[in-house]
Structures are given as C-alpha cells and as structure tokens.
Amino acid sequence: MGVQLPTAFVKRMEQLLGEEFEAFMTAYDHTPHAGIRVNTLKIPVEDFKKCSPFELRPIPWCATGFYIPHGTKPGLHPYYHAGLYYVQEPSAMSPVELLNVAQDEAVLDLCAAPGGKSTQIAAKLQGSGVLVTNDISADRTKALAKNVELYGVRNAVVLNESPDRIADAFPHFFDKILIDAPCSGEGMFRKDEDMVKQWETHSVDKCVVMQRDILRVAASMLSAGGRIVYSTCTFAPEENEGMIAEFLEAHPDFDVVPVSSEAGFAPGHPEWMSEEVASAYPELRGTARLWPHLVEGEGHYIAVLQHQGGHAAAIEDHTESEDLTPFEDKDDRALNIDEAYPRKKPFLSVREAQTPSRQGRHGTGEPKRSGRGVDGKSGKGKSGRGLGGIKSRSGKENVKSAVRSPQDVLESYHQFVKEQLEVSFTGYTVVYGDRIYQSPLASHRLDGLKVVRPGWFMGTDKNGRFVPSHPLAVALRSSEAVRSINLSSSDAEAIRYLKGETLSIPVERMALRNEVQPKGHTLVCIDGYSAGWGKWQDGMLKNEYPTGWRWTSV
Prior knowledge:
By secondary structure, this protein is an alpha+beta fold. 23% of the residues lie in helices and 25% in strands. Helix 8 runs parallel beside helix 10 (204-221). The protein is globular and about 75 Å long.
C-alpha cells in the first residue's frame, strides 16, 4: 500500500463499508488522478482543446475539466501563467457544478482559499453578477486573491472574515452559497500524506463544531429560493450526513436536491449516523459520496440544499444607470473619508471615493463610509498625515510626498483608461488610498469588513501618474488595449518575458489601435491571451511582469 493509513481510520472504514472495504483499500495502491479545468473567462473549451499542450481526457462531472497524464507539470507551461487553466483535483470540481450558478447571480464562496472553486464560479458568471469569496485565514487569503487575479476575474470581492460578520453585512443577499467546509480531510489521504499526519490532531469533533456554525449562519445569507451546496473532503458521517440532518431539523424550509449517480457518485448513508436519522431524513440518501474506488478522483461528500421560497425575493432589483462624473453628487456623499481604523494590519484605514459607473444588480448606488482598508495599504498615503501637502522639518512644502485627493487619483485613472484602453467597465470605481478598483458592490456593503480586495484591482496613482496593475492586464483581452504584442508559447521569448527579462521587439510586431504611438504601456499576450504589461520604446520592451509572479522551474 502506498499510503500508511491511521489504524483507527482503517477500522472505522471497515466497519462502515463492509463488502466494499477491500476495493476501497485497493484504491490507495493507485496513483492519484491529476486534472486541469479550462478557464472559460479567457478561452472557450473547444479552443483550448485545439491548442492544449497536454493529452486531455474529459472528467465526467465537469464539462470544463480534464484529466491529464500522471507526471505532467502544467504549472510549467506559459498557458498556466496566462491563466488559461486551473490545476485542480478532479473530485474538487464537482461541488460548483452542482451549485448551478447562472449569470447575473450573487454568489458567496464562504471557505474559499486557495481559490479553485471561486475561479470556477467566476467562469460561470462570465463577468456578470457578483462573487464574494472569503476565507477566515489571513494567510490563506493571499493565495485566494492571487488566484482570483491570475484567472482574470473582474467581478469578485475578496474578504477575510468570519461567517457571522459577513451575515451581518449581507442578510438574505446571495442567490447561491458554496460551503466547502473545513474538515478532517480523510478523502485526501491518498493525495496528500500531510493530511494523514494531521488527522489525529485535526479531529472530527473539532471540525463538526466549525461546520455546525458555518451552516447555521449560511442560511441567513441566502435569498428566498436560493441554493446552498455543502461539501467536504472527508468520509466521516458526523461531518457529512450528520451535519445535513442537523441543518434540516433547524431549517424545515430547505429540501435536499438529489444528486445524480450517472457520473459514478454514490448515495449518502444516513444509517451510518443512526437508524433514527435514516428514518427521519431518508432524503439524505440523495446527497452524494465520491469514493476513490468508484470514481477517478479523491473522496468527497456533497449535499445540495434548496430553499423552498419564491425566486430571489429578497434580492434588490436589477437596475442600470448612466455613468456619473466623479464627485458631482450635490450632497458630497461621493467623497467619504474614514479614519476609524488606523493601522490595523493587514487592513488599514480607508480613503474612499466611489462613483457608480454602470450600477450593478445588487448595488444601491449610495456610497457610505467604509470601515477597514485594503491590501495592507494605508489610506493616509506614504506620509500617514491626511490630505494635502506635507511639510518637511524645514517647513517647506514637500511636493513629492503630498497625498493626492481621491478626485485627483481618479482623474489620472480615467485619463489612462481613455488613452490606453478600449473597454467599458461596470460596477463602481472605488479609491482606497492611492489604489483604484472596479467593484461589483456599492461600498456600504463592505462597511466595517476586513476587505482583501474590494473588486478588480486596476492600478496605483503615483504622483499624478496612473500605473496599471498586473490584475488589470491579465483580465483584459488583446482587443481591449490600444497596444499589444503577441509572443508564442513555443518560443523562448515567452519564457524570457515570464522570467522578467527585457525583450527586443521591432515595432512591426506591435498591434496598434486608434493611430496610437507605439511608445508606452503595452499588453503582452501569449498566443493571443493576455499575460501582463510591458513598456515599449525604440524597439525594446521593458518588462513589467511582477517579481512575485515570475516563472520558476522549481
């Protein structure tokens, strides 16, 4: 056997599985299955199949998912850095498929890090609606935010909050909620031996307490007629059927939507909790178990919970509004300065100036005071002393360290968009300190929350000059930038760019729109798909690929 399993785990599984136990144990002698999921925010599945550098075999339960051969290293291809696919364990693709996300919906991924399921949800939304993606661990939100950005998600808000605090801010707000709950991880033993080592300390009993609280709160955030998908990667019935039985007892206005067995999914086992549970909640057999000896994937449990109410009655109506000129609101509500939370790492004070561009489905258009800040950036700027010029010790005005007003920051941003891009944005333009975001939510929805990203990070104002961000670049299409350069994935140039090197690019290779001059910010694409920024001048492309994102062969 390839994996040394805990004795207590083996004894329990033998008791539960009976005749299936031997087949279950044999699965641990097999190599785990590797998979990728095509990012349809950037490339259609059929187009990817034509250009895929890997041998692909469809995953039955996910139309965008494919098995790839064992030993393949998809993270070492330029397409990974261009965000064309996400490397994901095949079974982990199933919960989002059962969430049944439709465009224009508001979706919450409550336990989201490292972000695979969030990017899967975002691909189904296709830039419409709103995705709120959250993790309670501050460290884990770093990977979450990076994955949301790498895969070109334009309509996501990233939070680092407890479920209770999100519920206070979003009562009956979401059409769909995914709970990929923290669990004892038994289903990952074959794939990750660290889970085996952690199993005895990361006990089932501890996980049940967390899961119970998460499920309790989630119902209060769901709109009438909405759907919750609860999933774990464990076999323990206490964390699976037991949790759903408790939820149904407390929430009789929910039904279990039966999961099809066509893809090899097995039914739930309420009798593993007790005969009383099996008798009271026979619908728990409609939940799904993914067993490593029955499907080509690791162990999972999934329950689909549908609210019985009418269609999204508690959600605000979809409205559209014309673009508004920044700060033309007569009552000054468009400019709000809140320093109530100074320097609380990693979320610092906020200076916000919000202007609705095209009002989103769930926004009210009325900006209010924001709470904590974003990205570990202080709204006070480098000086930390508020608006206006900062005087040096000599008493002279220090122009370089002057903190620019939100109006000025927005002016440089809008000028860049007008001159450099051919794209219209939806949602709300929001300024946090010197950073600019396009948010799918009106600002008051995030009031007081720990916000990692309030939306699509567009760039930074540096003394009146707007510097576009890497997340802006990777979410753009080549047709949306006035300058672009295409590199081939089969050429060393693409790797050199991803390593951060300066490239020699003749002007003839540039795609220029609107008779723009070739000098300036240039969208760098790999086989036509955006990968980052460069600055072109006199035949040389200065590399703007961020250090923390660069190619490594490790």
